[in-house]
Design brief:
Blueprint: H1 9-31, H2 39-57, E1 72-88, H3 105-109, H4 113-119, E2 128-137, E3 140-146, E4 156-164, E5 167-175, E6 180-183, H5 191-220, H6 225-232, H7 235-279, H8 289-302, E7 329-331
Parallel strand pairs: 3-5
Antiparallel strand pairs: 1-2, 1-4, 2-3, 4-5, 5-6, 6-7
C-alpha cells in the first residue's frame, strides 16, 4: 500500500550481525567465568540470532533480469494471491544484457536478496522497492517482482510471465477492469520514449550548466551582481568565452544522455517493450506508461471520477502525481 514501509534489507543485516556479536560475546564471557554469564543467557542469545538469520534468509529470491527465454500472456482468475513490499535491485547493472555490467554473476545468482546483498558492496544500498507477489492461476504457481498492486484472490487479471522450471516468473500483472498494470520496476517505457526523455533531460542539464556559468562568472566580474550580469552578456568582450562554455557544456550533456541511453535501451527499455508486445499493444517502443497514466487521469477528471491519491476512504489507484512516484503501476 502507498506509504507502506518495505522490508529494510540493510537494517535486517545489521540486526543479524548484532545478534551474532551478542551471542559470541555471551560465549566469551562464559569462558572467562564472568559471574553474570550463564548457559541460559548463551542459549537465549543463540535463539535470537537464529530467529533473525531465519528472517534474513526467508526474504524473496532476487528478480531474474531479463527473462531467460520468452514471455507469454496468461489470462484468468487469481486462485491465490499474496504480496510483500520489499527492497531489491532493478537497475541496469543487474541485467545480464547490460553492456557495461557492474554486478557480478554471484550477486545476480544469489539465492535471495539477502545473499545478493551480502555479496554486494556495502556502499551500494538497495533503494528500489517493489511488490513481491505469489499465488496461483489456472492451477499453476506464479511469483515475481512488480510495482504496487491492489489485487486479491478472485480478481480477473492478465499476466506477463515466463515459465521457469516449476513456476511462472511474473514481469507484469494487469487488472483489465480498471485498466491498471503493475510492471517490473524501471520498465515503464520503450526505447523511443526513453530516447526523447533523455533529449529533454539533456537540454535541461545544458541550461543548468549555463546558469551555473552565469552565476560563477558574475561573481568574478567587478561591480554589483546585476551590473556584472549585464557586462557578461556583452558579446563584444565575452562572446568567445560564451561560445567555449556552450560547446563544452553541450558536449558534457550529450555524453551523459548517450551513456544513459546505451545503458537503459538494451535492458529496462527492452524488457518494457517485450512486456508491451506480449500484452498486444501497438508500437511498444513508443509507449510511456507515465504519459498514459496522466492522460487517463485527465479523462477521469473530465468525467468527474478522479479523486486525490491521498484520500484514505477510496480504493488505491495509480497516479502521475508525486504521491505515485516510483510505484511502477500505471493506467493503460
Amino acid at each position: 500500500m502507498r506509504g507502506e514501509k518495505p522490508v529494510n534489507l540493510r537494517q535486517l543485516q545489521e540486526e543479524v550481525q548484532n545478534k551474532k556479536d551478542m551471542w559470541e560475546g555471551a560465549q566469551n564471557r562464559y569462558r572467562k567465568n564472568i559471574p553474570d554469564a550463564t548457559l541460559e543467557r548463551i542459549a537465549m542469545r543463540e535463539a535470537e540470532y537464529q530467529e533473525a538469520s531465519a528472517r534474513l534468509m526467508a526474504l524473496p529470491p532476487p528478480p531474474v533480469l531479463p527473462p531467460i527465454c520468452g514471455l507469454c500472456k496468461i489470462t484468468g482468475e487469481l486462485e491465490a494471491f499474496s504480496r510483500q513490499r520489499c527492497q531489491a535491485d532493478f537497475e541496469v547493472d543487474f541485467y545480464r544484457t547490460n553492456p557495461l555490467p557492474n554486478a557480478s554473476d554471484a550477486q545476480r545468482l544469489a539465492g535471495s536478496p539477502a545473499l545478493g546483498a551480502l555479496l554486494a558492496s556495502e556502499d551500494k544500498p538497495l533503494v528500489s522497492t517493489a511488490d513481491y507477489i505469489q499465488g496461483q492461476i489456472k492451477g499453476m504457481p506464479f511469483r515475481g517482482w512488480v510495482g504496487m498492486t491492489d489485487l486479491k484472490a478472485g480478481d480477473e487479471v492478465e499476466m506477463v510471465a515466463e515459465w521457469q522450471t516449476d513456476h511462472y516468473e511474473v514481469y507484469a500483472i494487469a487488472y483489465p477492469a480498471e485498466r491498471i498494470i503493475s510492471v517490473c520496476p524501471e520498465c515503464e517505457m520503450g526505447r523511443y520514449a526513453y530516447g526523447w526523455l533523455r533529449v529533454k533531460y539533456m537540454f535541461i542539464l545544458f541550461l543548468f550548466f549555463m546558469m551555473l556559468f552565469c552565476f560563477g562568472m558574475s561573481s568574478v566580474i567587478d561591480g554589483d551582481y546585476l551590473t556584472a550580469l549585464r557586462e557578461l552578456f556583452n558579446m563584444q568582450y565575452y562572446g568567445e568565452l560564451w561560445a567555449i562554455a556552450m560547446v563544452i557544456y553541450a558536449l558534457i550533456a550529450i555524453v551523459i544522455a548517450i551513456s544513459a541511453y546505451k545503458a537503459y535501451a538494451p535492458t529496462t527499455c527492452k524488457l518494457a517493450e517485450d512486456i508491451f508486445r506480449t500484452m498486444g499493444w501497438a508500437s511498444p517502443e513508443k509507449i510511456d506508461l507515465n504519459k498514459t497514466t496522466a492522460r487517463h487521469e485527465r479523462r477521469l477528471k473530465r468525467q468527474g471520477k478522479w479523486y486525490s491519491p491521498k484520500r484514505k476512504d477510496k480504493p488505491l489507484r495509480p497516479t502521475s502525481k508525486w504521491a505515485g512516484s516510483f510505484e511502477y503501476w500505471y493506467y493503460y
